[in-house]
Amino acid sequence: MKKSVVARLFAMSLAAVMTMGLLTACGGGNAASTEPADTKEADTQVEAEAEESKTEESTEAAEAETESAGTEEAGAEVSEALADGVLTVGTNAEFPPFEYVDDNGEPDGFDIALIKAIGEKLGVEVTVENMEFASLVSSIGSKIDVSIAGMTVTDERKESVDFSEPYYEAVQYVILPADSEAATAADLTGMTIGVQLGTTGDFIATDDVEGSVVQQYNKGVDAVNDLINGRVDCVIIDKNPALVFESKFEGQIKAVDGAQFEFGAEEYAIALPKGDTALAAQINSALEEIKADGTFDELVKTYIEQE
Ligand code: ARG
Hints:
alpha/beta, D-Maltodextrin-Binding Protein, domain 2, 2 domains, six-stranded mixed beta sheet, 43% helix, globular, binds arginine
């Protein structure tokens, strides 16, 4: 809150100074490049003049200044969440290739590598807390600073958290017994569907599949095991984990593109504390750098494309 007021005042004073620069350009004054801190007394007089001179040029100049001042402010601001030098990240490491527990018992995967790269750009240490997926959103701002968990941006989640810029496009897949002939949305009607609790797969199975009986699991792999044991008819889960499970249980199950069942596109983003615009700006600019310098593509190759 405070910050945006400061940003606006800063922009206003720059705009005022700029206008003065335009007005006094012939007199050789160099007011436009004066440090804002040096112009505090000048501001009050100048503001009145700025108000009067509402030419198109000065309005445009003011707008341009407002934008760049806004960006500088946001970029310079450091979130309180990072004040201790540690970014505490919540995940649910049951979602390969985005997050899983490696052979040493440590969370690893695309998301973990991505958030560590972000931490490096921000100059903070990253610690990862592995917890239930359904607890992540409500833990942001208390137990954890942010969450990276192949989490789809949804309107409902946006009521409690903010999201970074999206970093990956996804869709739900349907995992079926290898010999199943189900191929359209109508074929799912009345099925017993296994899902991971609190995921978008859960929401689709519950809200969009007619007559469904939904079995919720804490881990996606448990749903898949129950599919193999014949306890559920299919599993609805995100594309990449579905493909990992398909190859892990080769010959027993098949993963079918949800587009065939009319499931829409989803986007993954990092969930952030609501209203922490400084943190959002810092994480988004780190993400942008990681995309621009090739790190992001490297991570896609290492973790996702070698599935
Ligand atoms: N994309 C889905 C969602 O946001 C599933 C994410 C599950 N992630 C996990 N780490 N278990 O609901």
